[in-house]
Structures are given as C-alpha cells and as structure tokens.
Amino acid sequence: MVESGALERVDRGPRELSRLVDPALLHGPRLDRTWRFLRLDFTGIAFATLFFCWSLTPSLLPRDWLFQGLIGGINAAIGYTVGTAIGWLVRRYFLRRRSWWPLPEPWSTGLRVVVTVTCVVVSLVMLAYSAAWQRELAALMGAEGTTTTGYIRTGGLSLLVGAAIISVWRLLRELVRWIAARLIRRWHLAIPTATTVGILIVTVLFFLLVDGVLMRGIYAATNAAFSLQNSTTRDGAEQPLDPEKSGSPESLAPWDTLGYEGRNFVSRGLDADELTAANGTPAKDPIRVYAGLETAEDPDARMDIVIDELERTGAFSRKVLVVVPTTGTGWINPTAAQAIELVHNGDTALVASQYSFLPSWISFLADRDKAAEAGKKLIDRVHERWLQEPEATRPKLLVYGESLGTQAGEGAFDTLSDIRQTVDGVLWVGPPNSNRLWGQLIQRRDPGTPEVDPEYAAGLVVRFADDSADMVENTGEWLSPRILYVQHPSDPVVWWSPDLAFTRPDWLKEPPGEDRSPSMKWFPFVTFWQVSADLTNAAGVPDGHGHNYGTLVLDGWITVAQPEGWTPVDTERVRSALESLSGTEGPEK
C-alpha cells in the first residue's frame, strides 16, 4: 500500500505540472511560446486605458509630457493588473457557466478589435483634453503652457513605461511558475501549495534585492556623489573676512569644513553698508554661524563649536537670534535669511548646522528621523545657552524652518505649549505632510474650517496662511509667542502622503484653494502618482505657487517677530530689496 501510494504520488506529478503550466509554454514551438508570453488580456487593456485617462486629469502643478508619460505608464500598468484580476474572476465564476462562452469566431476577434480601437481613440481624445487642462493650470500660476501636439508624445512614453512594468511583473510570475513546477516534480506538492511557496520565495527574493541591494546601493552611491559635491564651492562664494561669519579667519569653524551650502550661506547676504543703503539708517553686520558635517567628528562636537561661535561673534547681544534647522544638504533659504536681516537692520544672528549630504527629497525618504534628531539637538543646545543670558538683555529667540527644515524644527518640541515655553516665535514654511505636530493640528482643526486653510483654537496660538492677506485677516487675539505655518494650496510637499493611494483626503473633498484647479479629482492609486510627480517640480513654478514661497517669508517674519514701529511702507521697501536679490543664490537643494 505504501509503495502503491508513493507510485501514485510520483505518477501524479506530471499531471499536476501540466495543470500549473500551459503545455504549449513548455513543449510548443518557440514562436508560439513567445506569443503566449506577450499576449495581452483585453479586460486588462480596458482598465489600463481607464487608469491612464484618469492620470491625464490635472493635479496640483502643471506637468510636461515627460513627467506625464511616466505617471501615465505607471498608472496604466496598475490598471492593467486590476483589469486582469477582474477579468479572471468574471471568467472563472460567471462566464464559464454560460453556454455561449467563449465567443465563437469572428465575434471573439471582433470584440478584441473594438476594445483596442476604442481604447486608442479614447486615449487620444483625453490627451487633447489633458493638454488644455495643463494650459489652464499653467495660466493659473503664470507659467508657460504646453501645446496639444507636443503633449501627444505622452501616449507613446506611457505605452513604453507601462509595457516595461508589465514585462517585469510577467517575469516574476513566470519565475513563480518555474519554482512551483520544480516543487511539484521533486516534492510532489499540490498546485496551491507549490504556487504559494513559489510566491513567498519570489516575494522575499524581490524585496531582498530591492531593499537590501538596489536601494542600499543607490543610497550609498547617491551619498558618495553628494558628498563629493559637498566639497565643492558655488561660483562666486568666497571666504568671508568679517569676524561675524563662520568660516572667516577668526572662526572656530574652518571655511573648508562648512560644506557646499554652508560656504554659500556665510559668504552671501548683505553687509552693514548694504543694509544701511536699503533701510536708510545705520546698520550692523549680521552674524551668520554655521557648522558643516566636516566641522567636527560627531553631532555633539559640532554643537560645541556652534555655541563657541555664537559666543565668539557676540550673538547673544543682538536683538534677534534665529535658529534655522536646515534641509537635507544644509541649505538655508537665502530670501528668508536676508529678510530677517533687513527687517532688523543687521542686528541679528542666524545659526544653523548641516546633518546630511543628501538633497531634501532623498533625506525625506532616508533621513527623516535624523533630521528631527539634528533639529532637536541644535535648538536644545542654543536654548540652553540662551537661558544663561540675563532675561532683560538676551535676544529674542526665533525658529525658522522650510520644507524638511520644518520637520527638523518640530523634532525639538512635543506640544504647542512646549514651543511657547522655549522660544519667542516660530515661522515654518511649506511643511511636509508627514510632520507630526502639523498633522495633529490639522486633524484637530476647528470644525467647519477646511484642511487647506485650517483654523486652530480660533487662531489664538497658532495660525496657517497661504498669502500675506491671510496672515492679518483674522483680527482676533493672537497670543505671543506666535507660531505661523505658511502653506500653498498647490504645494505638493504639503499635501503628498502615501494615504493618497487609497483614501481621498479632506482637501480634495472641499472647495479648492485659490491656486488649485477645480478640475482636480481624486482617483485611487492615480492621484498618489500624480502628486508624487508634482514633488519633482515643486519649486519650479512662479513665486506664490507650489513650493516656491518667494518673498512671502518676509510677511511671515514680520507677523511672527512683530518688529516695533513697523509699517506697510517698510514691508514694501524690504520686499523691493529682496526681489532685486532673488535668483542670485540658487534653488533649494
């Protein structure tokens, strides 16, 4: 009986194998096997077209044909997968029980031709509509729009991208089948068991390859590449001679250790003579303190040098001391730095420290915890030293952050009360959606206020604004110290979240903000990839839109710092000076 059962199990192996793998794929001619491998599912094609057309609808920012082609291809591949799964379920549990299925020729071929032609025509029509939507969105932001003929290229690129993704998926599927077939031959497993084991093996191998090899390899290569850039110096950036600057001959932070962005930060800006000319009253040379990754061996040693630099330059005797947690590469918005120095006529000290070589978008993916830790360490150490000064004479302590810098800054505080007990004001610009404190405030906003323009506790402690008018529109009491978030309705950095793949957010349920197209809708998976593409060009739009806040940071500074005797005339004078300086120091890195 045992031998008979064993023989029966052995004999059953080839039959099980033939059910798992199409015999034509195993034994048929090479051309036939190739055709069967490349053949498309027509339900999948229909859904791929649907998802592709959804991806052509407008999102937060204008997109050129190249980015739209990439996003369209990704979404078409997702749609193809969904359609294939639905088609399989319908055929297995509904159509197979119908006497008229499968359709006889020529009806079967005719249906496929109709589906294909319809999908092509619908895609072309939607491409024309999409080009018009992109021009409408560009006009809303004062940017140059695309042409319909140029945008048609999107279809071809999307086809290539989608085909590449589907090909990778099919290779993985064939690998599962190959593993399952050998498990059946060698171990005589049942088809469901062998297939499950095959899926598990391929899934583990795939994620080990992507996460353990590709991602780490890319991260290491990127880090090496940007560490090389960190050793270079921007054209026009020269070692400062003013003792008020880190990197000067008197500085404890040597010039060649400050990094690319640090050297740019301390070498630029306005000196006392330029500030005097801009404001019409005698000015001081602003203090700029900076520590690069190479300034000291570890974060604690860098903080020691930062404190020593603040003491050396006399920063604690200035009117305003601003702590600036940086973005990934150590970048500081030059407009924001110049704005606070112009507002206070140079009686200021700005302090920052680099924590990474990587650009913000990479740091966001790989170094978010590191950013928060670096921001907390910088703010805590400066605050600790600041408390040692006499309360009557110590400077006003402010915190500024932009983009990933807001996440670094938030890392120093647990609650709003913690902020108010530590500093004299906070300005955070373009906060990422993943910010912990920002997210809590948005979730707890006052009932009836929209997510894109929220109000928290009637604006008593913290406020949100997207333009200068919004900062003064609420005439209710605003306690000091003030906390202000500045965010545009069209900023993908603020609104991007992995949740977009499956959940429609409140900001897409509510009436759109002033610079977001009312034609933008939420679609599962599609909107996530649309806004992901917007991230790559977040700052590549005109001032006042997307992640480009321009001179709006000036209005934020005035609102938070509340300089004595300040008038709207002063604001416009400083804005004019900032606009004449804009574009001279490069975009965010």
UniProtKB/TrEMBL annotation:
InterPro entries: Alpha/beta-hydrolase_catalytic, Alpha/beta-hydrolase_fam, Alpha/beta-hydrolase_N_dom. Residues 56-269 form the Alpha/beta-hydrolase N-terminal domain. Pfam families: Abhydrolase_9, Abhydrolase_9_N. Keywords: Membrane, Transmembrane, Transmembrane helix. Residues 287-574 form the Alpha/beta-hydrolase catalytic domain. Residues 232-253 are annotated as: Disordered. The chain crosses the membrane at residues 37-57, 69-90, 111-131, 151-169, 189-210. It comes from the Bacteria. This is Alpha/beta-hydrolase catalytic domain-containing protein. It comes from Rhodococcus wratislaviensis NBRC 100605.
